[in-house]
Amino acid sequence: MNTSLANTVRLLGAGLRALLVLTLVTGVVYPLVVTGFAQALFHDKADGSEIKDHTGQVVGSSLIGQAYDLPLKKGQETPEADLKWFQGRPANGLGTNSVNTRYKLILSGATNRSADNEELIRWVKDAKAAVVKDNSVTGYTVEPSDVPADAVTSSGSGLDPDISPRYADLQIHRVAEKNGLPVDQVRELVDEHTDGRTLGFIGEPRVNVLELNIALKALAAKN
């Protein structure tokens, strides 16, 4: 009996020591080492790929899309787009409840609707009509065939920070008119903020909407 009790105590002691060692290694040492390497080699990415405006204030992340909407009016449930800014992709994949709202980091996801889903088809048709209407300005008319897919569909996460150069180009005349800027200057901004394929062959050319709008704000302030 005494031998059995001693063995039990010994096993419990060994288990406790193993628990403490593994907790220290996996819960303290390993996270600190990984964090140290990340901060040393990928400081910006480790801190969330933050984007700062011209004042040095953090205004978002290059990895997370943002909405550019007008304040809600009385009785409105859905805000209207603020058309002086370049607009990102729709965010229909992001649901809402008492905590989660669109473009908040707590929730992300796709629409999970099939291509023949009536609600999805209606979303796409309504979005295309809005893109045509909003971006057709004096001297520049957008045709339905001009509207790219990313202008009317959300991404898999619903948080895509980028749009295609084609969608950015389509918005140039409207943004220029709303901000009182020459079209050529706005087009130059888009060209400057268009990134090619990663490593020359991965993905597609893209424009980060937040970075583009920061540059637009700075340009508008000079004029």
Task: Please state the CA-atom Rg, rounded to the nearest Å.
Answer: 25 Å
Total count of strands: 5
Please write the string of helix (H) and strand (E) elements: HHEEHEHHEEH
Instruction: List the strand order in the largest sheet.
Output: 3-5-4
Taking pLDDT < 50 over at least 5 consecutive residues as the criterion, the unreliable ranges are 97-102
Give an overview in words.
The protein contains six helices and five strands; from the N terminus they run H-H-E-E-H-E-H-H-E-E-H. It is mainly alpha-helical and 223 residues long. It has two domains: 2-43; 55-222, no CATH class. A three-stranded antiparallel sheet has the order 3-5-4. A two-stranded antiparallel ribbon has the order 1-2.
Task: Please describe the topology of this protein.
Blueprint: H1 2-41, H2 43-46, E1 50-52, E2 58-61, H3 118-135, E3 162-163, H4 165-179, H5 183-192, E4 194-195, E5 206-208, H6 209-222
Antiparallel strand pairs: 1-2, 3-5, 4-5
Helix pairs in contact: 4-5
Summarize the structure in short.
The chain has about 220 residues and is mainly α. Helices cover about 45% and strands about 5% of the residues. It has two domains: about 1-45; about 55-220, no CATH class.
Record keyword descriptors for this entry:
223 residues, mainly alpha, 2 domains, 3-stranded antiparallel β-sheet, two-stranded antiparallel sheet, 6 helices, 6% strand
